[in-house]
Amino acid sequence: MADQQPGKPDVGMPEPDIIGIANDRGRS
Description:
By secondary structure, this protein is mainly alpha-helical.
């Protein structure tokens, strides 16, 4: 799952902000 964003420097975590929000919503 580390070769899905070959154009982004943060492979594996392309959008930490989106992931963080999704985690917050999922936990609520």
